[in-house]
């Protein structure tokens, strides 16, 4: 067993890569190289795409830390709110928005490359050719040689492109000298920028940087900080993509551009040249095994390299939680991304060591942490998509205090009751706020999964969006505790009720012998029929292979509860109950159970139809055996 100090040392890192770097954990081995990192490092991919918290910034920070052997220089371009506003508002008469914003990004790339070349030529090559000296003069004349606030420098660059840059360093007295006749604002900016870019390209060629050493790496990260779901924001991102493609083509092997984009932002873009970027894309995906590997790497970075997986998952953590292997339990209940896994793991550790003062994490600690984590994630999901889907948190009540399995028909009835309020609150989104629109959004953000065959698929990777013919959806395990949706379907527990509470003091004469050495009495037969009904329903449920496993388990749990009550009728005990009322109470419960299944959308479309019909048939059969309807044992009620 691990001792107290080891658990106290255990820490899985920060939620953001920047603080992980500051704390040193990321650099001590807490980073797990993955396909996205390898693709970025090799230069084979230019677009690293992933959800918030999927590890984009961690890759960016790691490249800065260990990329010196691969690159001549690494520059991180940090968009801030001031810079973002400047780019969003940037316009040029004569150019569409995407093309205008591409120019300002191209200018930024050229300036960063020029500044790199000025210092690089002296420090690495030992001399400055005339082309590099020209870049140094250009930077000085345009106020780009000194470090300053990025937003201020960008504003100055925007004004220069919209009016005229100082191009004397390249042999032009003024920007207007570039043309013999008046040019549009967009055309003049393009001509000026061509001069600057050709100057940068010439300097790279004179130094032969592409052949002598690694390229200059230009990275853009956290663009979501300056993005909004508006046309000019999308143009800003499209312009960035176009500029990156242009820079790589113009500067050749001397420059690489790496863009880290959130998946929802990238997927919202629609532009004519979008198909040209498919080969540059690499989407970050995380499997359960990858998250296990990440957890162990970070645990070792904090608690010691000798820490084994067996110690982590069998000693510091319990081996199982609620009958499920602990790592699987944890990673099924968080979205497949490092940030969520790190938060959940740290919360388990803090619950055990800080709140309860334990020297190991118990099953109760994990369950307690899971409830808190689920609350966090439900709120975080709404905030993550606040810009694109401001109505998201108003959809969550549709799934509160109900089963986590929901059909399209049931969701439609719930949505119809809330549609008027939603349309009133969000009139601009009325077209999206339909049943199909809600399904699409909730699937895309990872809140709902869709039943496909025997699997439940959640959004991620190359999975298809929810199709119109798909009718069964599951709330992601991450959000179930916060919603009170811990069961596949909400079914009323079987309770004996008033009939079971009537104890007959005198009882039946003699004891109730279940050995059946003689002909079975009516009481024997009624108990047998109760058992037979339960086993029949359980058998039908187990054969419903197309029914969701969670729904199967839930139905079986409730029928087994009935069976447990029947099995209490051991020899000598059955005479204490009015068996006819017991049988009728059970029949009534079966009717209620069938109605609840149908009300929850569990019908033929979900594979539950045969189970429902069997429950109804057993209810009718039990009534016939008891000889009456519920509440009256004297009158027969046929099916």
Describe this protein with a few key phrases.
5-stranded parallel β-sheet; alpha/beta; 26 helices; 639 residues; disordered C terminus
Describe what you observe in this structure.
The chain is α/β, with parallel strands linked by helices. The protein is built from 26 helices and 11 strands. The chain has helices spanning 4-9, 17-23, 26-30, 35-42, 56-66, 81-89, 97-125, 130-141, 150-162, 185-207, 209-212, 231-251, 263-267, 288-303, 309-316, 326-332, 338-355, 363-384, 408-425, 435-444, 477-483, 497-501, 522-543, 549-567, 579-599, 609-626, and strands spanning 47-50, 73-77, 216-220, 255-262, 281-283, 320-321, 324-325, 405-407, 448-452, 455-457, 472-475. The protein has a 5-stranded parallel sheet with strand order 2-3-4-1-5, sandwiched between helices. Strands 8-11-9-10 form a 4-stranded antiparallel sheet. A two-stranded antiparallel sheet has the order 6-7. Helix 12 links the parallel strand 3 and strand 4. Helix 6 crosses helix 12 and helix 7 crosses helix 8 (130-141). The chain starts with a helix and ends in a 13-residue tail after the last helix. Residues 497-519, 571-577 and 629-639 have low confidence and may be disordered.
